[in-house]
């Protein structure tokens, strides 16, 4: 996949950011299993983006993205286990 040619190429970055923030907030506010499912969907999206961009990322960028994924999964698990 080349930069600028993917399925999100024409979607404004602000719109994508807003959707992610809203889904995250709703997931945390709702809590429990439904909230964990929403956060799990976000985690899957982050994992897919990480996998597709991995070769183009520098080691520091990889580390930050893996940490974001780990925190997202930890919060989702915390919602299920509370």
TrEMBL record:
<keyword id="KW-1133">Transmembrane helix</keyword>
<protein>
    <submittedName>
        <fullName>Uncharacterized protein</fullName>
    </submittedName>
</protein>
<feature type="transmembrane region" description="Helical">
    <location>
        <begin position="63"/>
        <end position="81"/>
    </location>
</feature>
<keyword id="KW-0472">Membrane</keyword>
<feature type="transmembrane region" description="Helical">
    <location>
        <begin position="12"/>
        <end position="30"/>
    </location>
</feature>
<feature type="transmembrane region" description="Helical">
    <location>
        <begin position="37"/>
        <end position="57"/>
    </location>
</feature>
<keyword id="KW-0812">Transmembrane</keyword>
